[in-house]
Amino acid sequence: MVERSPHIPPDRVVSFDPYRDPARTADPFSVFEEFRDKPLLWSPRYGGFWIATSAEIVRAVYQNPELFSSRLTGIPAGTFWPRPLIPLELDPPEHRKYRKVLVQPFSAPAISRHEIAMRDACTKIVSELAPQGACEFVSDFAHQFPTVVFIDQLFGFPREMAADFVRWNFTLLHGATVAERSAQSEQLITFLQSAIDARSKSSNGGDIISHLLRSSVDGRLLTREEVLDTAFLLFLAGLDTVATAMSFAFHYLAGHPAERCALIADRSLIPGAVEELLRYHAFVSNTRTVTRDAAFYGVELKAGDRMHLPAPVAGRDPAEFQDAHRVDFARKPNRHMTFGLGPHRCIGLHLAALELRVALEVWHDFIPDYELASHDPPSFRAGTILGIDKLPLAWDR
Ligand code: HEM
Fold first, then answer.
1. Which of 217, 308, 374, 387 could form a disulfide with 97 if both were Cys (CB 3.0 to 4.6 A apart)?
2. Residues forming a β-bridge with 41
3. What are 343-358's pLDDT values in tens digits?
4. Ligand 1 center to residue 84 CA distance, Å?
5. At 78, is the pLDDT very low, low, confident or very high (cuts 50, 70, 90)?
6. Model confidence at 376: pLDDT above 80
7. Concatenated DSSP letters for 117-165?
8. What per-residue confidence (pLDDT) applies to 74?
9. Which of 241, 283, 286, 385, when mutated, tests ligand 1's pocket best, judged by the most ligand atoms within 8 Å of its CB?
10. Residue whose CA is closest, atom 16 of ligand 1?
11. What is the mean pLDDT of the chain?
């Protein structure tokens, strides 16, 4: 904990800890509701940080990268990566040049070309689970499916490596100790470096690494370091997030059979359900660093202050969404910020949405009727990225 500095009004101080407080409740999203009475709060934990308390403020921060830098996006400040992750931790105008490189392979038309293979991969996993009558959804499905798509379709690595990647990614993000996470990071770096070496001998493949090796910024090819920094971010950003979104979605559907039946009866509801389940379970909370002293929503910010943007604050703001605490698959408009907003808005959103849609379609073809396993309740994970550690489901064989 740090001392409150004089520019922080005493009535704004709350002792909020993103790594502990959401874990204290059965609904990890609800803890943020108590924040709404003041526009900005401040927590002395992890070096001190402001907390945005409405969708309006979260949007204003995302859309002002000149005042709110992405150079340090974590709480506490600093990552285990020695350089800025590309493009996540770059600010405009630098950011724009590197993001441009990723636009085409992650565009909606490019991603839709993976749908058939994606559906096949999903069918294989679910058809093997269906006769079992039960599973631990997070490890048996939610991590498996996006990882197969990612390494097979996007990176062109052998499909048999999916189990390794599931394990690597989990340890990298959720390993028990810093040493464990760093060792895992080293292993992934070594693997990616050798893949970059191999692909640089003939970079005409359709995979992401070959694409990066052919891409230019400022009229020159990306350096190998830049290719590595981008590929590493894709692994960090593109696997656990989708698994988490799927786990929250299926947790909700397992506990709400009437809504699940409506979805099964009318498949045209699925795209809207994907967006609504993402809004309701906004789980990626980002942080920015203030670049200069400025007045903002009634307080004085100082250069270097951190600004935390809790995703559930934006996703369930009643000033933004009518009946914000109700899931409505037909909600329109549904301008949620679960994928962020502004220059850094998630580049993988078309991929994530398609994977979620395919998962909802294929799973319910094979396993329409399921429930939370009565003997083994789900467990949630707090943090700047909320998650589900364990989701045991059961169904009639
Ligand atoms: C449901 C799943 C996902 C969620 C909720 C999510 C959420 C987010 C959010 C909130 C941001 C903004 C970060 C910021 O402003 O600091 C972001 C950025 C990003 N995401 Fe995702 N993401 C998901 C899936 C993916 C996937 C599948 C990929 C790629 C394979 C991906 C790649 C990225 C990248 C590269 C960025 C940085 C974009 C930039 O800085 O311009 N994400 N994501």
1. 217
2. 51
3. 999 999 999 999 999 9
4. 15
5. low
6. yes
7. HHHHHHHHHHHHHGGGSEEEHIIIIITHHHHHIIIIIIS---GGGHHHH
8. 79
9. 241
10. 286
11. 94
**pLDDT at residue 79 greater than cutoff 70:** no
Residue at 207: amino acid letter? D
CA dist., res. 248 & res. 227, Å (int): 32
pLDDT in the model for residue 228: 97
In 3D, which of 55, 1, 38 has the Cα closest to residue 299?
38
Nearest CA to ligand 1 atom 39: 344
Ligand 1, atom 11, residue with closest C-alpha: 346
Compute the distance from residue 241 Cα to the ligand 1 centre, in Å.
8
212 Cα: distance to centroid of ligand 1 (angstroms): 18
Q: Locate 125 and state its tokens.
A: 């996993």
Please answer whether residues 155 and 207 qualify as being in contact, where contact means their C-beta atoms are separated by less than 8 angstroms.
yes
**Token pair listed for 103:** 């636009």
For residue 88, how far is its CA from the centre of ligand 1 (angstroms)?
8
CA of 309 to the centre of ligand 1 (A): 15
Q: Which atom of ligand 1 is nearest to the CA of 342?
A: 15
pLDDT tens readout for residues 125-159:
999 999 999 999 999 999 999 999 999 999 999 98
DSSP letter, residue 17: -
Of 191, 155, 145, 153, whose CA–CA distance to 172 is shortest?
191
pTM for the full model? 0.96
Nearest one of 331, 310, 272, 374 to 28, comparing CA atoms: 310
